[in-house]
Structure formats: structure tokens, C-alpha cells
Amino acid sequence: xxxxxxxxxxxxxxxxxxxxxxxCAIEDQDNxxxxxxxxxxxxxxxxxxxxxxxxxDIIFNFEKAYFILDEFLLGGEVQETSKKNVLKxxxxxxxxxxxxxxxxxxxxx
Amino acid sequence: MPAVSxxxxxxxxxxxxxxxxNCKSKEAEIKRINKELANIRSKFKGDKAxxxxxxxKYVCKLLFIFLLGHDIxxxxxxxxxxxxxxxYTEKQIGYLFISVLVNSNSELIRLINNAIKNDLASRNPxxxxxxxxxxxxxGSREMAEAFAGEIPKILVAGDTxxxxxxxxxxxxxxxxxxxxxxxxxxxxxxxxxHLLNDQHLxxxxxxxxxxxxxxxxxxxxxxxxxxxxVSRLSRIVTSASTDLQDYTYYFxxxxxxxxKLLRLLQCYPPPEDPAVRGRLTECLETILNKxxxxxxxxxxxxxxAKNAVLFxxxxxxIHHDSEPNLLVRACNxxxxxxxxxxxxxxxxxxxSMCTLASSEFSHEAVKTHIDTVIxxxxxxxxxxxxxxxxxxxxxxxxxxxxxxxxxxxxxxLETADYSIREEIVLKVAILAxxxxxxxxxxxxxxxxxxxxxxxxxxxxxxxxxIQIVINRDxxxxxxxxxxxxxxxxxxxxxxxxxxxxxxxxxxxNLIAGDPRSSPLIQFNLLHSKFHLCSVPTRxxxxxxxxxxxxxxxxxxxxxxxxxxxxxxxxxxxxxLQQRAVEYLRLxxxxxxxxxxxxxxxxxxxxxxxxxxxxxxxxxKGPSTVTDLEEAKRERSVDVNGGPEPAPASASAAxxxxxxxxxxxxxxxxxxxxxxxxxxxxxxxxxxxxxxSAVAPLAPGSEDNFARFVCKNNGVLxxxxxxxxxxxxxxRQNLGRMFIFYGNKTSTQFLNFTPTxxxxxxxxxxLNLQTKPVDPTVDGGAQVQQVVNxxxxxxxxxxxxxxxxxxxxGTFQNVSVKLPITLNKFFQxxxxxxxxxxxRWKQLSNPQQEVQNIFKAKHPxxxxxxxxxxxGFGSALLEEVDPNPANFVGAGIIHTKTTQIGCLLRLExxxxxQMYRLTLRTSKDTxxxxxxxxxxxQF
Lengths: 109, 938
Known about the structure:
The complex is a heterodimer of chains A (109) and B (938).
Chain A: E1 4-7, E2 10-17, E3 20-26, H1 32-50, H2 55-60, H3 62-72, E4 73-74, E5 77-78, H4 83-95
Antiparallel strand pairs in A: 1-2, 2-3, 4-5
Helix pairs in contact in A: 3-4
Chain B: H1 11-22, H2 26-45, H3 52-67, H4 76-83, H5 88-100, H6 106-121, H7 125-138, H8 141-147, H9 150-156, H10 162-178, H11 188-193, H12 201-217, H13 225-237, E1 248-249, E2 252-253, H14 255-265, H15 274-292, H16 300-320, H17 324-338, H18 343-356, H19 363-367, H20 370-379, H21 383-396, H22 402-413, H23 418-434, H24 439-453, H25 459-471, H26 476-487, H27 494-507, H28 519-530, H29 535-551, H30 556-564, H31 566-569, H32 574-589, H33 592-598, H34 612-620, H35 622-640, H36 649-654, H37 701-707, E3 714-718, E4 722-731, E5 734-743, E6 749-757, H38 760-765, E7 766-770, E8 782-791, E9 800-807, E10 810-817, E11 826-828, H39 833-842, E12 849-855, H40 862-872, E13 875-876, E14 887-894, E15 899-909, E16 914-921, H41 924-935
Antiparallel strand pairs in B: 1-2, 3-4, 4-5, 5-8, 6-9, 7-8, 9-10, 11-14, 12-16, 13-14, 14-15, 15-16
């Protein structure tokens, strides 16, 4: 099957990983194949960060999925293609997390 | 539940997500969510101040609920509070919430912008990064106003960290795309161009995107980027696959950056400097050469990345359109891909070849692949690819291969997907006409189209075949014979009956000599189809019959009998009945000479310049069709030795449709010739998809709108197809409007979609709720839609009602202003003279009064004026004004948030035929709006 389909004025480029579909909407002039690899690179980033990423990782840590996306893509353009640099940025941010013991004994609701 | 992997876990959030996932039904999920929303709301409203962690957790839960598809109408303030937290994760969640759920509430925007400003100034790169991401994700005008001046400074400052530079570049790009007027060009532009030379490839990647977008609009200012991009590209393509370390992707050096650089170069013509040009040509050759090398990896990522660069290079080669050698190499490369086992590559090869076909240098080379493309049409399993194959066949068609391509498209049509049939029909019709050397071929082709895909043949197509037959006497006899034969089929499409009826009515005499197609046989053949046809077709056939009366006196009595029969003379359809009566009368009273004059053969249609090509170009983008279409047209002009007949479109819009003949008695044109705004009969309109833009307001919309200011019921809009009626009632700040859509035709409207469009401002002040209507409206039927209206605060604009639907083959798009105006929320107030003047004086602040002096547009009749003021909604107060000729009114505008007292005074001056209108209310915007609305009424 072809990974591109036309939708209104846009093209949808999609790729399936297990039961998850990753879709990008791109404009007429944009490059379809490089978009497929944007999807793949994002999945690689998730995989590296979570360690064998699965659907549940993304659901339970949806905010992380957003943060990783923001480091990789911004305003619809690729910001940083180096896997090392993206993950370095995320890991640095994780280092800024407050120590966990502060949160123990905090009520659930 | 999986263990939370990294960073800080928010246990409450994880528990909540698990709960949601464990819900057995949608109802249970909604119940769980409502419980959570109530909990969060009470926490946010509670007296106890929440700590940062709790706030973050609850905001995160709200975000999750929103992502599940539920509306979130609170929590924004708490999210904004998080922005000013010193803890990174709290700030981060705050920014995420704002980015995903931004809201145009102006108070919040100010607070958000303030927090962003602080973070930008913090010199803490992670905080700056968060702020820049937020601006780039939201990209609103308010943010552009606040930061478009600041970000370029961050971008080019010497001490900015690389990662911040990257974010700043793309942030600026986003703001520029959204509000180009707010991004000032300046000294920074030249320094941005030099970022293409930066050592950090990530910075170069981000900067290239920015420079590309800026260069598209300001090519002169960014001209120096060309040589920088070429040298950067050259260094990348000649590098060994390990040189670029982590920027190498599956053995392809910096594919993203390469694609972006090639894209940037497509903003410019080929470089003038021979050295730069030579270097670029080398790069492109290297890229083409690499495509022939054996792959360095079997992974699809390797081939995708490599081919992404290759396709972008081919786009640049096509864009330059100056190196025949490269163009032909590109074409050969695409030719290989046409048979590649990867579906994606076949798709892209077909797509790129479509643009290559438009280059004079490579058109012939593209044509050599015709068999492969035809084969793709027949054997591809993927509809997207087949669609591309149709497009390419269309693009590569010229006089030499037209017969073959048209034949292949026709045979494909029999099995084509329904979604693309209509487009193929149009393409076949256009090609058949454009490249017809022999018009008998053209007639055969169009009749075949109707036979194979009659339902998809729009009216314009059959109008066009009739125009061509009428304009070319060499084909008339053949056409008559062919339609006569085609009509022999026991079941034929109604469009064929239309074409047949029309052509035989004009040229049936040319075949009447043959006893097998004698006048009576012709008549009986057509009449045998009559009862199966729709009203417009029957109307057309009646016109054919009266034409027969003139052509063949021997069948006159037979036809008169038919016209005289009850089913005609007493037909329930007025149009049919009228035709029967008039034609019968005409055939009885008119002498042979008069009949011959009245029912004369149609004169040739005026030949017009094609508007199809212009439309096609618009649809397909300028790069694809332009040159070659032009060139093809010139070529075919030479061959024909004269101007081509106007391709199908011009007719329906600008000349009467061929069925609208005969002194205006003729067949009712099934398509409206008039100007429903976008309902044009242009053939190529059919190419545009139904999901197109909103039509501009229909002509007369403003007038109609004004008529509804003082009344609530009536007809808002009407054209040949559609009537829109309104009935509305208002009470205090609430209202209900019934919109009635009437289909005036006998044909179904499909995909009927009315949409209410409000600007953001309006949406904040006026709450409209409605349910979608049934997408199918039967001929003659009326559907009703109810709009519930709530006035939240005073407003100035009016909502726009946009209606889109398909009628026959054409897409219709109508917009009208919906008369929901501020005065509808008036409650009249009776008061005595003394009270009135006391209040009048209280409202003496200059902003509270608005006055307008204007000329009377209508006769100055006291009773009508009174009725209008009452219709406007205020009470009409008698014996208040000392001058009995003046009118005075009072009332209260009810909105959800406030009530606004309004007083008005209208002073007519009969002598000068002028009015002076004065409004005093407690709110300046209300005074102004009411004055504007009411001034239009007299």
C-alpha cells in the first residue's frame, strides 16, 4: 500500500507501528519520503527514551511524548535531527526534576 | 499499569489514567471523568492554597481529559500560575497546557505573555526553550505583536546557545507565517543568512527552514543564501557517510538538511555565477549518480532518506528547467522507479513525471513511458497510485498519443473507483475535444462517456458536445446517425436522451432519408424514453417535438396528439404544461413560414477563449501545467490552421445553455445560467473538491440582511436552486431561529452542509447552537434547521451562513449574512415624558451618545416609521417629545452579562428629506451599533 493519501488540500503521510498509526499532514510542495522518516525518527526517539516504547508508555506519559516532539519538531519544521542532541536535551530537563521524595505522602486526589 | 518510566511520576495521574482505561463503557468513562472534573474544580475553588505539585497534577489531568475529546472550560488560570513557578516540571506542564488549549481570553494572553517575557529574559536556556516552544506552538497574533521584535535579537546574539538559536529560528518562522506584517525585516536578516555557515548542523537545519520561507517573500533580500546553500549542499553530498556523525541517518548524510537546502534553492532561478552554477550541477549529478549505486543498507529508512533527497533534487532540476541533460537523466531515473517494487516510489515517480511532462526538454522522454503508465492504470492495487497514473496520462497527452490515451482512460473508466470517475470523465472530455482532428471521433468518445459513466457526466460535458456539433456542420449528419443508433439500446442513460433529443431536433432531417430512421421512427424512439425521464429532460423532449413539427410536416398530427393528451396539457408540472399548451398552439396557428423562422436551426455558438486551462492551472499549481499547456495549445492551433473551438467550459456560464432555445419557451435550462456566486457552470469547477473555501457573500446579501433588522420572518436568500427562509423569535437574551432550506429543483441536493461561521470576537459574545441537517435534500423538498441563540454580551458583527452542496455534477457554495443583530435582544420599556428626559440627561456622557444625520432612502411616511421603530424592538413613546413630528423610543438590551438601557430619538426633516437619529445608551459600543443598524432602515 502507498503511504500517502490526498486529503483536501493536504497530503496525509502515515506509517503504522504495531497497532499505532502515526500521521503527518503535509502541503503540496513538501517531501513525502522525508516526512516518513520524520515519523520514524520520532518513533526511534520515543523508543530510546522509554526503552522499547509501547502504546502504554505514550498514554501514561503523554506529556513526555509532547516534550520529545517539541525538541524534535517545532512550528511544523524539523528542529534537530540528531538523536543524541534531542535526547540530551530531554535528559537534561529530566535532571531538573525535583527529587522524588518531596512527593511521597502527597494524597492521590 | 506499567511502571512510570522516567522523571517524576504523578501517581494520581497514573491512577486516573488506569481508571479510565478500565472503564467498561463510554458511560462509565464519562462518569469517571465528571467525577474527576468535580474533584479538580473543588480543589481549585477550595480555600486551601494548592501546592505546585497538586496544581501541576490537576492541570495535567485536565489536559488528559481534553485529549480524550472532552471540553475543558476551566483550569486556564491555574496553568498560567504554573508558568511562573521556579520548578522546571511545573513550568513545563503549564506551558504544555497553554500550547494545547490556548484560549483567546485577552486577560490570560496578557498574563501568558508576561510569563513568556520573563522566561525569555531569564538567560536560562531551558526556560528560554520552553517559552520559545510555546510561542511557536501557539503562534497567535498577540504573541507576534509581543515578541516578533525580540526573537530576532535572541536568534543572532553571539552568546545564545545553539539549542536556543534553533528554537528561536523556528519560532520566528512560525510567527512570520502567521503574521508576516508583524515581523520587521532589519539588520538581523543578513546575519540569519550566515547561520547557513554555522558549524552546528542543527542550527543550519533550523535556519534553512526560516531562510526558505523568508526568501519566498523577499527573494532580493536573501539572495546571498544561494551560494551559501550550494556550498553547504556540496559539502554534504561529497562527505563520507561517517563524517557527519549523528547527522547521518542510515548511511545518508544529513538527509533533512539536504532536502531543505534543495527546497531553498527552488526559491531562485539557476545561479548566475558560473562557478556556483557549476558546483550545483556537480551536486545534482552526484545525487543522481548515487541513486545508481548499490544500497549501503537493506533498511527501508536508508532508501527512503536517499530517495527523499533524490526527489527533491529532481524537483530542483525541473524547477530550473534549464539543463536538458539533467532533465533527461531525471526522467530516466523516474522511469526506473515506475516499475519499482515499492508502492511509494511508484506513486512519487508518477507524480514527479507529471511535472516533468510540462518541460519542453523532457516531454518527449516522458512520453516513452506511456506503456508503463497505462499498465499502472490497469494493474496498480492502490487507488492513490492509479489516480496519479491518470494525472500523468493527462499531462503527457498530445496529438500524437491522444487517441490511445483517451481509449485507455475510457476503458479504465468502466472499473474506476467511484471517487475519481467524475474527474476522469472531465479529463477525457477535455482531451477528446482538444486533440480531435476528426470530430466523428470526438462525438463517439463523448457518447461512450455517457454510456459508460452517464451518472458522472456533468451537464457542461453534454452541453459542450451539442455546441460542437452545432458549430461544425461536417459532423452533424454523423452525430445524428450515431445518437439515433445509441438510442436503440433498451436502457440508455438520461444524458444520452438529452443529447439525442437535442441533436435529432436540430439535425434529424439529415438521416430522415433512410427508411430505417424515418421521421416517425425517430419520434417514436424518443417518445418511448419520454416517460422514464425527469422533468427537465421531458421539457427538452417537448422542444424537440415542436422542432420535428417544423422539420417533418408528416408527423405533425402525431405530435399534436401527444401534446394534446391529458398527461401533457394537464401535467402537474407547470413548465411541462406550459410548453405543451404553447407548442400545441404554435403548431396550430403558425403558418409554415413562421414555423420555419421560429424553429430555425440553432445559430452557431460564439467561440470563446478557454477558461479551462486557467482553472486547471489554478487547481494543479502553476508549476505543473503552465508552460506545456500553453505550448500544446499553440501547437494545436498550428495543426488546425485556425483557432480551436472553445473548450467545454466557457459556454455554460456565458452563453445561454443550448437547451435554453426557442424564444425563451425552450427547455428550462437544467443548470442555472445566472450568477449564484460560485455555482458557475464552469466545467472545471467540478475539479474543485467539495471541501473548498467558503464562498464570498452572495450579491444582495447586505440588502437582505438590512431588511431583517426590523422584522423576524421572511425569505433571506433565493436563487434558481435554493431558497432560504427564516422565522425567528427572541426573548430577553435568548432567541431561536428556524432556517428553512428549500430545494427549488427536481433534483436531489447531495452533501448539503450549512455551516454557521462566527469570527472569534463574535463567538465570544454570541452563542449559537445548532444540529447538522440531513445531507440529502430531495427535489422540491424543504428542510428545517433550528439555531438556538444566546447573547452573552453586546456584539457588532453578524454570523455568516455558508451552504455547500452538490447539485447535479456541480459543487455549489453560497454564503449569506444571518440577520442576528443586537436589537433583537431589545425589551421595550414604556415611560412617561418626565422619566424619559431625566434618563436622557443621565446619559449625557459624550461616549454614550451617537448621532447620525442621513438622507431618507424611502418615502418619509409616519406610520411606516412607527412600525419600523416598534419592529426594531424598542417601545414607541407617544407624547414625549415636545415636537409631535419626532419619534422617541426606549428599551433595554438584554445580554447574559448585563442589561443596557437605550433611548432613541428620530427627528425627520421633511423639507430636506433628512433624518437625525440620536441614540443614548449606557455603553458606547451599543449606542454605535444600534445607530448604525437603525440608520439603514429609513
